Amino acid sequence: MTPGPIYLDHNATTPPSAAVVDAMLSHMTRTWANASSQHEAGQAARVALGQARARVARMLNCRPNEVVFTSGATEANHMALRGAVGFNGRGALVASAGEHAGVLKLLSQLQADAVPVARIGLRADGQLDLDQARALISDAVSLVSVMAANNETGVLMPIGELARLAHAAGALLHVDATQLVGKLPFDFAASGADLVSVSAHKFHGPKGIGALLVRQGLNWPALFPGAQERGRRAGTENLPGVAGFAAAAEALTLSPEVWLARASGMAHLRDRLEAGLQRALPGVVVYGATAPRLPNTSYLRVGRLHADQVLAQLDRLGVMASSGSACSAGGLAASPVLTAMGVPRDEAVCAVRFSLSADTTASEVDHVLSHLPGALMPLMAASDPVSPPGVFA
Length: 393
Ligand code: PMP
Fold this sequence. Notes:
Elements: E1 6-7, H1 18-29, H2 40-60, E2 67-70, H3 73-84, E3 92-96, H4 101-112, E4 117-120, H5 130-136, E5 141-147, H6 159-168, E6 172-176, H7 188-191, E7 195-199, E8 210-214, H8 228-231, H9 239-251, H10 256-280, E9 284-286, E10 297-302, H11 307-316, E11 319-320, H12 336-340, H13 345-348, E12 352-355, H14 362-382
Parallel strand pairs: 1-11, 3-4, 3-5, 5-6, 6-7
Antiparallel strand pairs: 2-8, 7-8, 9-10, 10-12
Helix pairs in contact: 1-9, 2-9, 3-4, 10-14, 11-14
C-alpha cells in the first residue's frame, strides 16, 4: 500500500501544530485589538502579548525582556548584522562561509558598501575551521556571526568556543539558531551568545514570526525605530503570530530526558535511512556524517545522479525532500556550504537533503528504503561511473 505524502523537508518548514492553529485563531477572533491601545481590548491584547513573551522566554531560557519579536529569522539576522556596523566604534564583521543564503547575500551587500567582512571557512567534514576563526577575530571586529547548526548538513558549530574568542577580542557573538531550535534544546543564558535569531515556522509555529534575543544591557540599534518592543522594533504587534510562536515554544519546553528521547528517536530513523540507502545503492556519500550534527538531517548524494533526478523519483513515490537549502534551490549555483567544504561543483549539484521531524515514523523511512533504490538503479546504470561508496570525510 502506498502511504499518503511523506514530508521529509522539515528544515525548509514544518506544518503548524493543532495547538498553534488554535492559539492563532483564538487571538485573531478574540484578542484582535492593538496591543498599544489604551482601551480595555488593547490592554487585553497587551496582557496576552506579555504572556506569550514569557512562554517563548521559558523555552529558550532567556529573560522576557531579552525577546524582540520580528517577522522571522531573516529580519532578526538583518537586525543583528546591520546593527553591528559601527557598533562600539568598530566596523568589521566576521561570519562563517556556510551561513544561510540570506546572510551571505547581506554580507556581500555590506561589503559592497565598504564594511570589512571576513569569512571563516568550513573544513571538509562541515565543521567550522576554528584556526581560521582564531586568526580572524581581532579587536577591529564588532560582531562574529555563526549559525548554531547548518541548514543543509545539520553540522553543529562550536558556539561556546566562538563566544570565548569573540569576548576575548571585545567583540559580540550573534548566533543564527534557526535550525537548531526545536531539534535540540537551546539555552540562551548558557550559550554565551549576545544575540540569537530564532524562527517559529521551523518548529511547528507559524511563518512570518521569529525573534532576535538581545542580551540584557545591550542597547542594540533598531532596524525599524519606533515605539513597540521597547523601542527596538516598530510595527503593530503580530499577536496571532506571537501566540502561535508561544504555543509552539510551550510544546518544546521539555525536560532533558524528554529532549534526549526525542533527539535519539530522530537520529535513529535518520541513521536507518542513511544505512539503508548505503546498503542498497552504490556511491552514496553523506555530507557531514562524521561531525556532530542535528539528529534529523541527512544530506547526501547518490553517485553522480543530479539532485533533480533523485527528487523527481522521490516525488513519484510521494516523498518530499529538497536539494540543499530551499532558499537557493532553483538556481544553477552549487550550494555555498558544500563549496566551502571543498566539494566539487559536479558533486555538489547531486546533494539531496532529507530532514525528519519527531513525528516521522519508521514506516515512512522504510517506504523510501523499499522503493527509492529500485527507482534509481536504472538511472545509475545510464549515468556516469559512480565514485566509490563511503562517507564524505
Ligand atoms: N537562517 C537559517 C539558518 C534558516 O534555515 C532560515 C530559513 N530557511 C532562515 C535563517 C530564514 O528564516 P525565516 O524564514 O524565518 O526568515
